[in-house]
Amino acid sequence: MADEYRGLELRSEATEGGELTLSLEEITVSDPAADEVIVRVEAAPINPSDLGLLLGPADVSTMQAGGSAERPVLTFAIPEGRLSGIKARLGQSMPVGNEGAGTVVAAGADASQLVGKRVGMLGGGMYTQYRKLKARDVVPLPEGASAADGAAMFVNPLTALGFVETAKAEGHKAIVHTAAASNLGQMLQKICLADGIPLVNIVRKPEQAEILRGIGAAHVLDSSADDFRERLVDAIAETRATVAFDAIGGGKSGSDIVQAMEAAAVRNMTEYSRYGSDQFKQLYIYGALDLAPTMLNRLSFGFQWSVSGWLLTPFMTKAGREVVGRMRQRVVDELTTTFASGYTATIGLAEALSPDVLRAYERKATGEKYLIDPMR
Predict the structure, then answer these.
(1) 133-175: per-residue pLDDT in tens?
(2) Check: CATH 3.40.50.720 for 156-316?
(3) In whole angstroms, what is the distance from residue 217 CA to residue 201 CA?
(4) Is the separation of the CB atoms in 153 and 339 below 8 Å?
(5) Which of 216, 213, 261 minimizes the C-alpha distance to 237?
(6) CATH number, domain 2-152+341-372, options 3.40.630.30, 3.40.1160.10, 3.90.180.10, 3.20.20.70
(7) What is the C-alpha to C-alpha distance for residues 220 and 248, in angstroms, rounded to an integer?
């Protein structure tokens, strides 16, 4: 049976010599075990988290194209100072793509009921034509849902729901979110509207603000506006937001938010304290749209604050099976509404290694999201 499932897979390899190579490699999928399935991959999104493995620390401006039209190869230089951060992956040809969707074409004895069903899946290595994985890692899509509908049903939806679960578990009443007009940001806004949670959205352009207002956002701030900092304090004071999720990471964006939380809290103080307010403020950094170092103006925060990283997988481990099961079911139930994703273009595996196409999706621009159809 395995001979029927040969195909191409996108790989990323970094070397000790400071070079990163993207290529398409031939694979043969072996027969599934009793609890495994083989899925013909029909859709897989390019998320910012995928770019972290795909391109890693490479300098995109050094890109060189080679190979053939059917089997292109791209190479990039890796700045020497960045090699130490990826030491564990050096010399390994690594499959890419966190999530995807497709049709189950074969299954082991314990998963035979899934054959012929369209499923969403999570488990890495999705930029491939055929993917074998445990049956527990696939979720049958609702009747009528396409592979494109289910391709991004894990990373962004579960992250948005995870933000809300984190806020609730820690006792926060409202949330601040940056890069808020992204697909993930729009999902978060819809969730917060449905769940009655005030949300302060921060964007960088007026047109991004209009996207969010169009889906009902009450608090949208443009960080490029002259009065941004004053309006941020006002919005936080009104919503009483004490937790923020920052997709930008570098620079002062997170610091500005915590400083605004402290300024809002100080408004309600009746007595001066040299230690600032007693309001606890939490900043979670979950993205790296800005690769610069994170700058914190900590003396403007008071002394009741914390800055931490937030990542989906550790969150799910800590939240437990019951919470994650509830989250996944909500995604399935609202797949084409709350958790719908739009795409700029659908591309094949070879197109993903076209220099012009790569430059387009590597920008990570709001409103530009690419979908890979490996069978294209």
Answers:
(1) 999 999 999 999 999 999 999 999 999 999 999 999 999 999 9
(2) yes
(3) 8
(4) yes
(5) 261
(6) 3.90.180.10
(7) 17
